């Protein structure tokens, strides 16, 4: 675009707002455009249809499905389910999860950071939510999944936000908060943190944790094959009793791979028509993932393309 000209297309607009801020003296017209929205120079479409979430829910179908699933619960699960249903009957509920993948599995789910507008750059110690938020006042029940990954700062911020928005000086502004998770799984991620750092930032070390009523589910529903040795091993790993003096887990020899694990899983050459949906290597660090991904890509036939 030339100096002094005005953008006429969406492409030109994108080029303007994607560039660095122009100098006010050298390019006054471009400098004036920065900060304006698209309505300043592009007509906004009026045929936008907004669908209410409430109209998108078949409550009869959900009730029927819930009754079917309820009959599949064992005694521990039914005890917890009855306790929750008695507390939330007839109230407005919002579901969220700490991770994006988990939130996609929930009906109209959102990440906890998105729901409370947590400031990620400040380690979730503050929120950008408006104090006049009507949504926060209307909702009565908040269900937070994958709670073992939620840092204590985030839960404390949620508590402070709901107290301020509702003007009710009670835990979470008097809202019912239901946490679900397994503390044998992944704890909050602390960059370059040690084991004590991860434990310190854990949800159980939050001051408001003492206000929760804890329900325990002790049956391992994911391992029902009857392999007692495997079940006991998973419990030892989760409890930390499988660790040696160096905090390392001692695996059986059959679980170890001395040679290249990429060759073991993917082979020496990958053809373009091969199905990779059932092949995967899990690693705790991104640097290891990037290194193994590079090895896998080198085994694929054809020329690579950078998009």
UniProtKB/TrEMBL annotation:
Enzyme class: isomerase
Gene3D superfamilies attached to this UniProt entry: P-loop containing nucleotide triphosphate hydrolases
DNA helicase Pif1-like DEAD-box helicase domain segment(s): 93-247
Reactions it catalyzes: ATP + H2O = ADP + phosphate + H(+)
GO biological process: DNA recombination; DNA repair; telomere maintenance
Entry EC no(s): 5.6.2.3
Co-factor requirement: Mg(2+)
Superkingdom of the source species: Eukaryota
Any Pfam family hit: PIF1
Keyword tags: ATP-binding, DNA damage, DNA recombination, DNA repair, Helicase, Hydrolase, Nucleotide-binding
GO molecular function: 5'-3' DNA helicase activity; ATP binding; ATP hydrolysis activity
Annotated family: Belongs to the helicase family.
Protein name per UniProt: ATP-dependent DNA helicase
